[in-house]
Amino acid sequence: MADRNDRNDRNRPLYMISVAAQLAGVHPQTLRTYEQKGLVTPQRTSGNTRMYSQADIERLELINELTSEGINLAGVIRILDLQGRLDERDSELDDLHKRVRRLADRVHELETRESVNALVRISDMPTALRRLP
């Protein structure tokens, strides 16, 4: 639950374009270009003002890091796409691990119940039958 709240907080739109640009260390026009190319998608107010979240700022910082290493925007787009896919797979894997744990717990519960039932059946047998091989 805390993870979900953290994610919601990180995605809450907080910064107008001028503040976001300053935090990310770029010009506001750069943010508009990044939006056009699909690198970042700020939320919009009812008045159509761009609003950036902390997650957007972190993404912009990553974009700046990659471009400063000489990666062009097409490469950055590809890297971010792959990172998004990897994050999705990690989430799916976490969900599958949780499901396996729940199923293992259920199997253990059923095995325990069957063992108890077998013991009850044995104890209900007449003593003479219990001694038979």
TrEMBL record:
KW Coiled coil (keyword) present: yes
UniProt entry keywords in alphabetical sequence: Coiled coil, DNA-binding
Pfam families: MerR_1
Coiled-coil stretches: 86-113
Keyword presence, DNA-binding: yes
Annotated InterPro entries: DNA-bd_dom_put_sf (IPR009061), MerR-type_HTH_dom (IPR000551), MerR_fam (IPR047057)
Domain called HTH merR-type: residue spans: 14-82
Highest taxon of source: Bacteria
Name of the featured protein: Helix-turn-helix transcriptional regulator
Organism: Gordonibacter faecis
